[in-house]
Structure formats: C-alpha cells, structure tokens
C-alpha cells in the first residue's frame, strides 16, 4: 500500500473527500447500522472537531442514494437497495445568537434556505408549522419518507450556558423547532441529532421521548475519531510516511502518536480512539502539534478553569457513575459532565460489579493544554 498524500484538513463534506481522493477513515458501516437498526430517532454526543459533521455529511449522501461515493467502502458491501430520500439537513454550528429574538432570526434563515427548495405555505408562520410543512412536502413530492439531520444541536445553547435565564428562553425556542418531529413520524425515514453536550433532554425533547442515545453504546464507540485498528490497518502507510518525514522509526512514531492523541474511550470496553482532527493535521504537516487546543475547541472551559484556579489534573482517576458524568450539564453539581462531554476527560476504566467508571485526562495534548 502507498501512503495517502492528501489529507482533508478543514474538509467536512463527504463527497469532496471521496471525489478528491483524500484520506478517509471508513465509518460507513456505522451509517448502515444506524439506518437499519430499527430506531428512527437517534442522538450522538461527541467532542468538538471529532468528525460529527463529516459523519452527518456521510449520512446525507447515503440517504440520498449516492452509491457511487461509497464504492470500496463498507456500506457498498452491505447495502443492496440504494434508495433516494429527501434529506433536510440543519447545521446549527454557526448559530451565535445572544438573545431569543436573534435565535429566531437565525432559525428563520435556515428554514428559508430549505423552503427555497421544498416550498412554503403562506399560512405557516410559526417555527413548528414550518418544520412540519417542510417534512410533509418533501415526502409528498418525492414519494419517499424524509430524513432529518441536525448537526451541533447544542451550539445555540452553549453560547448562553452560563446564564440560566437566557438558557431557559433559548431552550423554549429550540423546543418549538424539535416538537414536530415525533408527530411527523409517518413522514420520516430517519432522524439524527449530534452535539457536544446534553442540555436537559427531558425538557427540550419532551415530545421526542423515543429519542435513542447511542453515545455510550459499544456498537458505536468508534463511530467518530480514528481507532487504533484503523490506524494499524488501512492507514498504517500514513504512519510510515509521517515517521519518514519526522526522521524517526515507525515504532517511535506510533508511540508518540498514541501518547499525544490517543486515549479517548466512550463506553466500557471501547476501542482506543485517536483525536481525528489532530491526527489528520499531523499527517498533513509532518509533525505533531497541539492542533485541537489551538483550534479553540475547549476555550470556554479553559477560561473557566483558569479564572477559578482549578487544576483539571486533580481529577485524574476520579470515580463516577455514568449518571454523574454523562448527564445534562445545566444544574450539574460539578464541571465533570461538561469536561467529559467536551473531551477533556474520558473513560479510563470500568468496574462492572459496582457500575463505576474511572475518568481521567485522555492524552498529552489535553494535559499540556491545561498547563
């Protein structure tokens, strides 16, 4: 095998990555499994810059029936009936509203772009009825149930997470957006939501009480990030090339990559998962830097810790139940849930007898970022 020479730094569109011949860690088996496992409403939480947007883009291409993009990938071997569904994709990652009025205006802009494709009933003025109208028209016009993909559902809420009053107001606006989804089930083939954190699912998603959270399921532990199996298998040539560029042996390079970027675990028995953003940047640059921290991914958390003189390293080896660290962050008694969901802490061990997890800092990149 020849090492890849093109790395998708800053690229999150599946079609561009595939058509451009860029490095791609095949996650299409997970896409197929999610589409066929029986659940219609699915939620996945992963840290920022961990490949969620590329995963959503991959799902978009899959449900659009773009089989040619999947040649040579796992989904091509698994899927025997490629069907084209209308896909309604909502990317909330750029929403930076500081008040409910601006939040509504940003949602209006997203809805207008989709309505330019699928049309709008003049009587639909509320957010909820506009979402309903999009889903119904997409189904009726194509004859296929619609697919709804929501990327970074929590981005609007993270901006006001420190302000309980504004957070409550924002949650109510977003509840209007999500409330139609369960009622639209006959018109829907699949609904997928991603985000970094959990914001009170019981309140904001009260109408979506059948939302399945796969974030800690072993079957999807490797859905985002790059696993050690992938790095030692199909992408081993990339490690060899990096070692050559760094002037070290392959063994030394692997050890350095493991210490710097590995360490993430998302459930008991999870495979070794590397930070994909940092790993791809290292392959591109031919050296190892602190790319994830330099991108500003956990900047709000770092500022919070520094302002309070909090030492994150004191939490190395902390023990907790899943309900403690994998819980909604508002109202939490500590910062541990946010730290875990943001990728600053990860699962280091699990005691099945007592159902207790041991948490710790994932790797050198995170540890150095807090120094």
What does this protein structure show overall?
The chain is of the alpha/beta class. It is 44% helix and 12% strand. It contains 19 helices and ten strands. The strands form three sheets. Strands 2-3-4-1-5 form a five-stranded parallel beta sheet. The protein has a three-stranded antiparallel beta sheet with strand order 8-10-9. The longest helix is centred in the N-terminal third of the chain and has 19 residues, at 100-118.
List key phrases describing it.
371 residues; alpha/beta; three-stranded antiparallel sheet; 19 helices; 44% helix; globular
Helical content (DSSP H or I, runs of 4+): 40-55%
Q: Outline, from the CA principal axes?
A: globular
**Strand portion, in percent?**
5-15%
Structural class: alpha/beta
Total number of strands: 10
> Spatial order of the strands in the main sheet?
2-3-4-1-5
The DSSP helix count reads: 19
The main β sheet shows up as: 5 strands, parallel
Q: Calculate the mean pLDDT score and round it.
A: 89
The helix/strand order is: HHEHHEHHEHHHEHEEHHHEHHHEHHEEH
Which stretches are low in confidence, meaning pLDDT under 50 for 5 or more residues running?
none
N-C termini distance = 40 Å
Radius of gyration: 21 Å
